[in-house]
Amino acid sequence: MIEVVLNDRLGKKVRVKCNEDDTICDLKKLVAAQTGTRADKSRIQKWSNIYKDHITLKDYEIHDGMGLELYYN
Amino acid sequence: MANRTDPAAKSIRGTNPQNLVEKILRSKIYQNTYWKEQCFGLTAETLVDKAMELDHLGGTHGGNRKPTPFMCLVMKMLQIQPEKEIVIEFIKNDDYKYVRILGAFYLRLTGTDVDVYRYLEPLYNDYRKLRQKLPEGKFSLTHVDEVIDELLTKDYSCDIALPRIKKRWTLETLGSLEPRRSVLEDDFEEEEEKEENDQLDGLEDEAHEKQDYYRGRSPARERDRDRRRDRDRYRERDYDRDYDRDYDRERGRGRDRDRDRERDRDRDRDRDRDRDRDRDRYRLRDEKDYGRDRERDREWEGRERERRDRDRGRRRSHSRSRSRSRDRKDREGGEHRKRHARSSTSPRRRDGAEENGTREEPKKKKERKEKKEDGTDHPDPEIAEANRLRASLGLKPLK
Lengths: 73, 399
Hints:
heterodimer; A: alpha+beta; Ubiquitin-like (UB roll); five-stranded mixed β-sheet; 1 helix; 16% helix; B: mainly alpha; two-stranded antiparallel sheet; 20 helices; 65% helix; 5% strand; Ubiquitin-like_dom (chain A); ubl conjugation pathway (chain A); Ubiquitin-like domain-containing protein (chain A); Hub1/Ubl5 (chain A); Ubiquitin-like_domsf (chain A)
């Protein structure tokens, strides 16, 4: 179980607990549950790399405590 | 300049009509090449030409959320605000299905509640296929009536939040709308009558059972006799239901069949639940019937569901006291006898469940789809909370 920090630089910073083998899509759903935006409206990035929905966190090498950027579509 | 709404346009729902589309999506559409090249200076007539060239519908797709031409045209319609007659012409036209969907979508966004129901419901009869672009970028198959159903029942479609409209029954009670008449109504009524006849036969027999019970004859013999009677009767009912199912399949009335089966399933489930509560006491006496019942019952597909319900019921009855179940027996005199006719668990399985009740539970739960119990009984409350959320989203629990 890892904890990921999502920051949208507009005031929303959420910590989400998830498994390593969750996909980015699952992570978006968890974030949506916590922030109240829709899951398909959010976009998770790291610099300019937009993370794709079907790839797991483990494959993106997202570790415990790592920070990701949250943008909106 | 090209993105300003027509100054003569009315405001919709209190705001600039283009604001029906969210800011981010709106900016994406303005930056889109299709919008810039094709949608410049369109009028209602030229819009129709563009609409006829459409070959798929959808919202946005891809990593950077590129809008589809369908979206751009919807935006253009919001910008120029064609007359209601023109929109209705779009919907009524039969040749081009995407023009129809475009008109329907625009009406859903801008029309009044009554108009929406009045003009969109006839489109339920249109069964043509449509190509839909998914957010991943792939195409999927959908149908006109499915899209209309989405527009009328959901509040989000094609990446646009649809404005709230009143529910149909509200409008019916207000008198603005007639109750809905489906085209399949005549066929459906036939099926309903058949169902009612079957059900009536079942109910009559229950009444007889209750009388016998209270007359106070020897309960064991009474039960055996009734059990045999029930079994035959239920066998007939099963056959009727199977016959209906096949009959429907031939006629191809998919929707009715599912509706009927749903009703049957729900009815059975309720009956099962009542039955389960009293089962414990009759365990020994049932064992000799298991052999006979088991064969016949396995044929019917509904058994799986019953078994699941029974398992759930079995766990429930563990925790209840005997006195309580005895009271329940008096209340539901006839019910327990019905249960005998249909019980089909193997004796071995039942005894196993009695002995290691708790050990069996997690295994059985795993057989079904992911259940909340898998992780929400975690000692740490935070993790239990997180697991509950995950279960509601359909994810596995945290490791």
